[in-house]
Amino acid sequence: MSAVSIYAEASPNPESMKFVLNANLLADGVSVDYPNLEAATNSPLAQELFGFDYVGRVFIAQNFVTVTKNQPELAWTQLIPELRQFLKSYVEAGGPIFLVDPAAEQKAAQAATAGDPTQQDGQIAQKVIDLLDNYVRPAVEQDGGNITFKSYHEGIVTVNLQGSCSGCPSATVTLKSGIENLLKRMVPEVQSVVAEGITV
């Protein structure tokens, strides 16, 4: 592995920091969110990060890792050098990021939760997924998080907020004023958007 450079980028969530690498960790459009160590069985990298006692959540996307701390009294200025050095050493040494490709894992999970929507619901859901992927996700990723589609039923879209979005003070506002307005405008059948994964 060639030299890895990493820089830290603040997110709207004061407890989350985004570490951007010049290396790909995942395929574009795939991301994983680990709210705790128990959830991180598929990622040796995330498990190692949870070894730092101040790490409360780990989110991994194409070329960045968002770390959410669970000790608000600790300043990021103390933590960034240690985390940046750890990530740099780990990736340069070729440490395993995942045991199983998360893309395959996510497809299986989506198929399992999709159930059996009516044809019309399926078409609406696909429109919503396209809008989220093309307009919402790139902006949310810039802030160190992710949004994934969970379900559409009788006008209600359920999404999952991950990474820095989970626990972000402005997540609910973004969800209602930004995402919900966009979806209602583009897909008239949508009446409201609700989110899982907000821990405020």
TrEMBL record:
<dbReference type="InterPro" id="IPR014824">
    <property type="entry name" value="Nfu/NifU_N"/>
</dbReference>
<dbReference type="InterPro" id="IPR001075">
    <property type="entry name" value="NIF_FeS_clus_asmbl_NifU_C"/>
</dbReference>
<dbReference type="GO" id="GO:0005506">
    <property type="term" value="F:iron ion binding"/>
</dbReference>
<dbReference type="InterPro" id="IPR036498">
    <property type="entry name" value="Nfu/NifU_N_sf"/>
</dbReference>
<dbReference type="GO" id="GO:0016226">
    <property type="term" value="P:iron-sulfur cluster assembly"/>
</dbReference>
<protein>
    <submittedName>
        <fullName>Fe-S cluster biogenesis protein NfuA, 4Fe-4S-binding domain</fullName>
    </submittedName>
</protein>
<feature type="domain" description="Scaffold protein Nfu/NifU N-terminal">
    <location>
        <begin position="6"/>
        <end position="94"/>
    </location>
</feature>
<comment type="similarity">
    <text>Belongs to the NifU family.</text>
</comment>
<dbReference type="Pfam" id="PF08712">
    <property type="entry name" value="Nfu_N"/>
</dbReference>
<dbReference type="Pfam" id="PF01106">
    <property type="entry name" value="NifU"/>
</dbReference>
<dbReference type="InterPro" id="IPR034904">
    <property type="entry name" value="FSCA_dom_sf"/>
</dbReference>
<dbReference type="GO" id="GO:0051536">
    <property type="term" value="F:iron-sulfur cluster binding"/>
</dbReference>
<dbReference type="InterPro" id="IPR035433">
    <property type="entry name" value="NFU1-like"/>
</dbReference>
